[in-house]
Amino acid sequence: MTTSLAHWPHLMDQLCAQFQHLDLAVLTRFRGDPQKITRYLAQTHDLTVVEAAETLDDWLMFQLNDYRLTPVGSLFECNSRY
Description:
Blueprint: H1 2-6, H2 8-18, H3 24-30, H4 34-44, H5 49-67
Helix pairs in contact: 4-5
């Protein structure tokens, strides 16, 4: 989902505002890596990795609607080995 990554700095701020246990400095170190972000959200918000991936996908769809962008695929697909 290249389009959303172009807006990543603003999306990180929005993500931290929505999920208050996330730390902007930590997200910045992840450099937009969806698997790291998913695991981090799961750990900080007492979610499974699958729940975190679904939550992030839903959240991102809502954010992209604000930008009037069309996503292609899922950015936060869950890898079952986590």
